[in-house]
Amino acid sequence: MSDSMKVVLFCGGQGLRMRGDGMVVPKPMVTIGGRPLLWHVMRYYAHYGHTEFILCLGHGADELTDYFGRAGGQSWNITMVDTGLHASIGERLMQVAEHVHGEDMFLANYADTLTDAPLSAMVEGFRRGDAAVSLLAVRPSSSHHVIQMGPDGMVSRVDDAGILHHWENGGYFVMRQQIFDELRPGQDLVPHALNRLAAHGRVLAHRHRGFFRGVDTAKDRIELDYAYRQGRRPWMVWESQLKPAAVAR
Fold it and tell me: Which helix (H) or strand (E) holds 91?
């Protein structure tokens, strides 16, 4: 286990792509296995000993306050900060700077991604270097297909998006205080602040080929809830008796 660190979670987005599910609650509060999505994210961090959370609230702040004001039934230390309805993630992080002031390192993440990535290894790899930020690098998870075609528009091949030789930002950030030097009003953490740091070799990526799933749409939530009920829930690393298995799209 790593030494305990504070965890900043960005919970204020409107989750517009989730509304096809008839959602009337903010996206972090949609349920998987009867628990809010955000609870699953927090429980992942708690498994690794990080139980002090700073929730950046916005859309649906009242619902999150009602639920997590009770700590979701857990012995967690939770600070909730209303960072506004329309702030970018970078601006939300700026607003909670005082809550991580003096911390050599802290964790940050979106509220809608699940993984079985080894957090302790990610933290230790970051600790040994001098990067200002590290992030989880994951393979493309699109359910769409990529096409190869000629100048005349004729298609020569159709493949799964997974064949692409690139990596995506999966969140699960580890940060040092230098991140606050690169944040600007009206800009975002990604890409603006990270690109400024990357230009100076200060951003580290942890490649992860295991389970990762962003919960962006009603389809994602439905599939994960079904997988949960079938016992296929690899993101729940705190349940060691469960064998990891991929969740099919």
Answer: helix 89-95
- The identity of residue 162, as a single letter, is G
Measure the CA–CA gap between 224 and 219, rounded to whole angstroms.
9
Q: How far is CA 59 from the centre of its chain?
A: 17
pTM of the model as a whole: 0.88
Q: Which residue has the tokens 């995506």?
A: 168
- Structural contact between residues 150 and 156, judged by C-beta atoms closer than 8 angstroms: yes
pLDDT digits (tens, 9 = 90+) for 193-207: 999 999 999 999 999
Before 244, cis peptide (omega within 30)?
no
Task: Give the residue from 47, 167, 41, 43 showing the smallest Cα distance to 108.
Answer: 41
State the average pLDDT for the chain.
89
Distances (CA, A) of 113 to 156, 171, 213: 35, 8, 6
The Cα–Cα gap between 31 and 9 comes to 17
